[in-house]
Amino acid sequence: MSILTIILNIFIPPVGVAMNKGIGKDFLINLILTLIFFYFSGVIHAFYVTAK
Questions:
Q1: 3-state secondary structure string, 7-52?
Q2: What pLDDT does 38 receive?
Q3: Cα separation of 50 and 37, whole Å?
Q4: Residue 22, phi-psi category: left (phi > 0), alpha (psi -120 to 50), beta (remainder)
Q5: 2-34 b/e with 16+ CB inside 10 Å = b?
């Protein structure tokens, strides 16, 4: 995981996921978590997805 990925995961979680996994299922889940549920759930999911 690079420094850029960590910074994007903290400030704009869907972009960090999209950079690593592309626009797909993980991106949509992260977008929903970030926008509808709370920002922090999107950050946690972004770190979980990019660490796999």
A1: HHHHHCHHHHHHHHHCCCHHHHHHHHHHHCCCHHHHHHHHHHHHHC
A2: 84
A3: 20
A4: left
A5: eeebeebbeeebbbbbbebeeeeebbeebbebb
Residue-wise pLDDT for 20-41, tens only, equals 999 999 999 999 999 998 899 9
Confidence bin at 1 (pLDDT 50/70/90) = confident
Q: Is the pTM of this model over 0.90?
A: no
Token pair 């990925």: residue: 5
Residue 46 in contact with residue 9, Cβ under 8 Å? Answer: yes
Rg, Å, the chain Cα set: 9
